[in-house]
Amino acid sequence: MRITEAARRLGMSPRMLRYREALGLLPPVREQGAHRRFGPDELAAVAQGIELEKRFDISPAELAFALRVLSDPAVAGAVRDLGVRIGRIQAPRRALDFEKEKALRLLRTSTPGQTSKWS
């Protein structure tokens, strides 16, 4: 079906459907250079996106960016770095940091005057 019919079935305007397409929220066109046709799979994909927007109270642009973060490692890394910097994401612990913390814990738990089994 064409975009006008698809938009009517989804309860939106063709313009809003084109906007979602521009954001990358529609499956790719199957044939290069062909006009977009909407079948059951395309309608279901758009409906799923709309449901996510409603459930999480986000805009189509926010959903499109979330998909970009999931699919582009450079964007994911930049967003992760920001999240660490502003305290929304815990910085990943390095193996050496873990071993250092473990050693410090062991040193703190030993009693004064007690020799370690490694000395």
Explain the overall architecture.
The structure is a single chain. The protein is an all-alpha fold and 119 residues long. The chain folds into two domains: 1-58, Multidrug-efflux Transporter Regulator, Chain: A, Domain 2 (Orthogonal Bundle), CATH 1.10.1660.10; 72-109, no CATH class. Helix content is 63%, strand content 0%. It has helices spanning 3-10, 14-23, 40-56, 60-71, 73-85, 95-109. Helix 1 (3-10) packs across helix 2 and helix 4 (60-71) crosses helix 5. The radius of gyration is 26 Å and the shape is elongated. Keywords: DNA-binding. GO terms for molecular function: DNA binding. This is MerR family DNA-binding transcriptional regulator. Residues 1-69 form the HTH merR-type domain.
Rg over C-alpha atoms, rounded to the nearest angstrom: 26 Å
Q: What is the correct CATH architecture of the largest domain?
A: Orthogonal Bundle
Strand content: under 5%
Find the structural class using helix and strand composition. Answer: mainly alpha
- Helical proportion? 55-70%
The number of domains: 2
What is the mean predicted local confidence, pLDDT?
88
List unreliable stretches of 5+ residues: none
Total beta strand runs: 0
* Tally of helical segments: 6
Write the layout of secondary structure elements.
Layout: H1 3-10, H2 14-23, H3 40-56, H4 60-71, H5 73-85, H6 95-109
Helix pairs in contact: 1-2, 4-5
Short description:
The chain is mostly helical. It has helices at 3-10, 14-23, 40-56, 60-71, 73-85, 95-109. It is elongated, with a radius of gyration of 26 Å.
Main attributes?
mainly alpha; 119 residues; 2 domains; MerR family DNA-binding transcriptional regulator; single chain; Multidrug-efflux Transporter Regulator, Chain: A, Domain 2; 63% helix
